[in-house]
Structures are given as C-alpha cells and as structure tokens.
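Crash report, auto-generated. Payload:
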Amino acid sequence: MSTTTQPVPFLKGHGTENDFVIIPDPEGRLDLTPAAVARICDRRAGVGGDGVLRVVRSAAEPAARALAGEAEWFMDYRNADGSVAEMCGNGVRVFAHYLRHAGLVKDGTAAGGAGEWLPVATRAGVRRVRFAEGGDVVVDMGAARLPAGPEPAVTVAVGERSWPALQVDMGNPHAVAFVGDLGDAGRLFDPPAVAPATAFPAGVNVEFVVDRGPRHVALRVHERGSGETRSCGTGACAVAVAAARRGGLDPARDGEPAVHTVDVPGGRLVVTEFPNGTITLTGPAVLVAEGTLEPALLG
Ligand SMILES: N[C@@H](CCC[C@H](N)C(=O)O)C(=O)O
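Recovered output after restart:
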C-alpha cells in the first residue's frame, strides 16, 4: 500500500440520504488513513459524507481474506471520523449498486443480475445483496442478536431525559429506545449517554423510535463515528426487531415473517424478519456524482 501523489477517483452515493464517498481501490493500493477519511468526509473542506466505502477485491485485502468466502469484493467501511465499523446496511446496498454500475459484476446471468444474490464481504462477514424490480436494493443482513433477558438492559439519556433501551447486535452494536416524540431526543449534536458504559465497550449506535401504525415505525439515529445521520440500515433492522418483540411478534415462534416499514429522516426502508431469523433490508441506492480527490485530501 502506498500514499498517493495522484488524484484518486471517487463517486458519491446514498441510501435514503445516508451518504457515502465511494473509493474504488480494486487492487488494494491505497493507504486510507483515519485522518484522510475524516478529511474526505468533512462537509465543508472535503467531499462530505457519513462514511467512506473503499471498494477492494477480497483477495487484495488482508483483513478480508479470512472472512470473504466466495465474495469477490470487500466493503472496507469507515465512519466519517475515520473509525472502522463492522457493517453498514445502507452502505452495502450502495456498494453493490456501484459494483453493477461499474460493470464489476455481471448483469443478467451471473451473481449481481436481477433476482440473484451477490455476496459482499464485510467485517461482520459475508452479506448477500439482490437488485429488485423498480430499482430497490435488498440485502440479507443475517440474524439479529438480542440479550437473553426479556427486559431492556440499558438506558439511553439525552440531557435530563432518559429511556430504557434494547441492545441489538446487527454485526454492529445498537441501543434502541422508544420515545414519545422524535423531538424528545433534542438536537443530538453529542452522542447520547448510554449506561452502563460497559455494555458497549466499542461504542454504540443509538436509535430513537416512535410508532406510526401497525408494523410501521419512524426513527432518528445517532451513529457511532458519524453523528446524527439521515438513515441507518443496520439501525432500521435493529429497530424493526425491537418493535416486533415489543408488539409480541416473534417470527421464529409465529412461523411467519414480520414486515416492518421504517421511516427515517431521509426516506423509507422495509425490514423483513423471517422465521429462520434472517432479516432483509430493502430500499433505494443512488449514485449522484463522480470526480477525483486531490492528493492533499488523502494526505
Ligand atoms: N449507516 C450504517 C451504519 C454505519 C456504521 C455505524 N456508524 C457503526 O459505527 O456501527 C448503516 O446503514 O447500517
């Protein structure tokens, strides 16, 4: 890996306005430091984004080799502050959309064609992505992991207000709090306080949720490493599972899928939890621009 002295191509994309700078680096030549990621994601002095998606062949990325399986491509996801995260639900949908846009996966007959599942390696393991009719991108997120007990075990606080929250692991950590009104969470400039701190030694994404109707919720999210964002795919899945359990639904017990509509500030996602535990996340993925990053941004 080397530090670049040449402009580096990038694209910009988003999924329900969770926005990413996509950096194609198929052979893994780029030394993308945390400081460089933070400069690129800066909304005034950089391109701006909630995170970076570095697109690298699994075979060219030491971090991916052990976990990539059959996945040719590895999503090297970074938060806006430069930190690494295990998984990004909107990011992996935008990542797959980019692969198809760039002709890096075949359209129609091989993995990546309409209706077929494209494996993508992430730090949380392989996730499979499918392009649906109408332009939506579906990702099989695997199963949620919940704490053993029935009651929320953690507390989320903003200023003087606090709420019980459910811990949900979607490959990355979430704390889901049901609130009376999404405005109750205030301006969310700072990370909400979560207690006990030992519950999330590597930090946590915090979702605030309200009911909108039967199997229909809305959320705001404060993301670890990125601040408040307009959407979070793993967060939407965590919220759907929390809403299902709260409403007495458990697909494994009931033998039928639970489908939840999750409104986010940047649009709408659909989350389906199947009786075998698998969760799918469906929503749009959009590319909006491309250009080059100046070497000074990369450092
Ligand atoms: N926005 C993403 C989640 C990105 C990672 C998260 N900030 C973390 O640190 O775990 C999504 O769509 O899931």
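Post-recovery validation: The pocket of LBFN2T5F is lined by residues 18, 79, 85, 88-91, 172, 205, 223-226, 229, 232-234 (CB under 6 Å).
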